[in-house]
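RECORD CONTENTS
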Amino acid sequence: MDHNILQTTRELIDEVGYPALTVDQVAARAGVGKAAIYRRYASKAEMAFVATVHEQELPPPVGTGSLHGDLLALVRTFHVRMAAPAARQLAPALISELAGNPELNTRFQDTFLAAEQVGFAEIIDQAVARGELAGPVDPAMAHLLLLGSLASALYILNLPVDDVMVTDLAAAAAAGITALAARHHGGSGGAAEPR
């Protein structure tokens, strides 16, 4: 049933666009009751977000051998998902709903963002083990530096994000993460600064 709901949501977004999409349309075409949809998703925006951006499993860290390479592989995967026309249509609506619905915001933080931050934690742990970082960095900060910048470019600034920009975002995030690790763990010959 879950797959059917999400597949139907994707089809309808392609056909009518996100603004015209309704839960009634999804329920009717998927052959399920609206209650079944609302047991799974708190809103149309959450359902559409899962269908277009987050249904697929997050990619495991690639293990390219460098922090920059791992971040670049990750941001390229997310760029494909986040730059899709359906994702660009629904992101502003989801952001608005998150701002006005604390329960939905908590669900979003505890599911989607938490899963993404696990991936960042693995990348950071690998970089520490390779000696690239002086110590661990908060995965939430790494997430903000890379995917927060990508989301801002796509959904707020409406920039034409191409692979050159994605590569630059990964380089900037790697530099920022490296600087934070040095700041908090006394790497690069400096004393650790207080947090």
DSSP finds nine helices and no strands in the chain.
